[in-house]
Amino acid sequence: MGVTDFSLLLRPDRGEAAHPLHLVDAELLPEWLKANAGSRRPLVEAARFEGKAGQLLVIPAAAGGDFEVLVGVGKLAQLSPWCLAAAAERLPEGSYRMAGEVPLGTAALGWLLAQHRLTRYKSKKDAGTGPRLLLSQEPARVEEMIRLADATALVRDLVDTPAADLGPAELEREVRDWAAASGVEVEVTKGDALEQGFPMIHAVGAAATAARAPRLIEAFHGDPSHPRLAIIGKGVVFDSGGLDIKPASGMRLMKKDMGGAAHAFALARLIVAERWPVRLHLLIPAVENAISSASFRPGDILVSRAGLTVEVDNTDAEGRLVLGDALTRAGEEKAETIVDFATLTGAARVALGPDLPATFSNDEELAGDLLASGTEVADPLWRMPLWDGYDEQLKSDLADMANSADSPFAGSITAALFLRRFVPEGARWAHLDTFAWRPAPRPGRPKGGEALGLRAVHAALAKRYRRK
Length: 468
What we know:
This protein folds into 2 domains: 6-139, Leucine Aminopeptidase, subunit E, domain 1, CATH 3.40.220; 148-465, Zn peptidases (Aminopeptidase), CATH 3.40.630. Helices cover 32% and strands 20% of the residues. The protein has helices spanning 29-37, 41-46, 85-90, 107-113, 141-160, 168-182, 191-197, 199-205, 248-251, 259-273, 319-332, 346-352, 364-376, 411-420, 454-465; strands at 10-12, 19-24, 56-60, 67-72, 94-98, 131-135, 185-190, 215-221, 228-233, 235-239, 279-289, 301-303, 309-311, 337-342, 358-361, 382-383, 401-402, 428-433, 437-438, 448-449. Helix 8 (199-205) runs antiparallel to helix 11. The longest helix has 20 residues, at 141-160. The radius of gyration is 24 Å and the shape is elongated. It starts with 9 loop residues before the first strand and ends with a helix. The model has no long low-confidence stretch (mean pLDDT 94). Residues 314-321 form the Cytosol aminopeptidase domain.
């Protein structure tokens, strides 16, 4: 999956000619006008530039050169990752540098991502490289911002790719191509071995054609003596709902049902690129929940890899089935921390909307780290309870449990409780029920696939595991 070459758009400042960018907010603007505007003040006032977030004004250069740029940032003391995004979308190609001593933090991320689009399906592609930002403050953060932009763009591109072009085999190829270039070991289980070893993954994907056969993709990296970290992503490349078929309106966006896999894959790439001292285990159960004579049925009873039996109440509650087998496998490798990403329930969106991934954890410290890191990097999460009182809603008269609750209430919680039954004893575990989609565009964040929770989890785990 090709993404934008962000290294062309963000570089350390080596003194080349560049247009100054003045970051101002409403509070600072009068002071800036008094000190810097001069004869340009009437132009600024006539344009009704007030320093509001997203405002942009090109003004003549104060002394020579072509022009300078005023950028409204909302609050200068609290720069968001997206405060430069509108400028990056609208400014002409060329080089730009910050005027004054302004530490940008993660604001460069929005500058980069504002210039990324999936162009694979466009007959006419944009020419040029877009505006370039030169960093004189915090030049060491250039590589970090480029890595985060690459990871975010990868999630977006994978989610936006139509299901016809991104099946289980194509997901496997993405992982194998990365692994070959990064010294990562890959194991893929499919066919008879999948049916015998991972029955729930096999059952969900059994109705797909041979070319889109289900599989478990695993990748390993790092010293086996290091702390073991498992990252799992739901890889349902398209979800028809199975025999409990979705309506057309519910099926339209189901190419994004592998959004959890996209998040997990992008996070694994970050961890390997940053050389964390961990034994990384990436798991992607990749399936298509299709419809054929081989479909699993309501009322079927599946024997999971863990040995627990599961009665199928609803074939559209398939993501938790494939994750259950993957969680069991992560436990076999003695993972001390497990994080899974999944576009799991509509109930999470009803409760929290599209921007906030519902976050569940069996460990208070891990949960606290995730929430705090989400706030720090402006990638917010919201904790939801693993409420034991709802566990009985998963009861089955014939099997150890059902795959769907017998109540319409608390759907995201009962889904998380289902997953908890497969979490290995003693492991720290977090589950992110993420939307992986932006329904309306914002600066730097186009409508379509989106990484929601990726940077928060990366930052939280980095505090625990990344080499200082």
